[in-house]
Amino acid sequence: MKILVTGGTTFVSKFAAQYFVEKGNAVSVLNRGSREQVKGVTLIKSDRTEIKDILRNKHFDLILDVTAYTQEHVKALLDSGVTFDDYILISSSAVYPETNTQPFSEEQTCGFNSVWGDYGTNKLEAEQCLLENVENAYILRPPYFYGVYENLYREAFPFDCAMNDRTFYLPQNGEMKLQFFNVADLCHFVEILVEKHPQNRIFNVGNKDIVTVKEWVELCYKVAGKEVRFVNVEKSVPQRDYFCFYDYEYVLDVSKMSELMSETLPLEQGLNEEFLWYKDNLDSVYNRKPYIEYINENLEKK
Which residue segments constitute the domains of the chain, with CATH numbers given? Predict the structure, then answer.
């Protein structure tokens, strides 16, 4: 296929660009050219809000839009003169209000989520803009992505704690639930959509298996070859000061995805792959949060 990936230099979009290159596809990436590009891609150098005529008369079998965060992002691409057979937008589970009944399903009403704020409503507007203009587009709503090239200080935090033999400070009793989706599974599901063209246009995507915070941390330590010691932190301590997830538990219904792709990468295997990459690429994680500093100054002294 001829594929256009928006972004292509960080985490999800970088992994996708490399994945589809390695599968023998002709992959172009749309980004500002400010970072190193994946080997084998064709760079289309542009800010996506200022595309002008750079894509006019270009045709792609697939546009994989990873970096659309607003309706303006989608509109700029659609107005660029580019043509395509399939368009897949990576949206977010943040489009579901936290007041909805869980697990969140694709049929539920979408709207403002107080945890995610404008991020969720902007993603919803991007979805709506796309579907109003491209009836046969696909929308994917993931929970937390993880895997190789992760650039957020998420798995890297318990990895750091494990590598330094630190006690882990756990929110309350660690029973808050988390749902993940590996970037390799995302790419596999994209291939399935392009091959099968299912009638359904909106899919929640993610692992069927849900884990608790405690189980997730234990797996992160395990793949680092360490055993974890826990200290429970009371609810009165702001969770985001010392931990890498909000105090917000939600679960997606991924049954529609599972009808097409019944298996996803086991979480331990995916975390192991991410850890092996991370320990050789410590500088690839941006905007490290001062969780450890907060713990040292405010929790260990108690």
Answer: 2-146+182-204 (3.40.50.720), 156-178+209-249+262-299 (3.90.25.10)
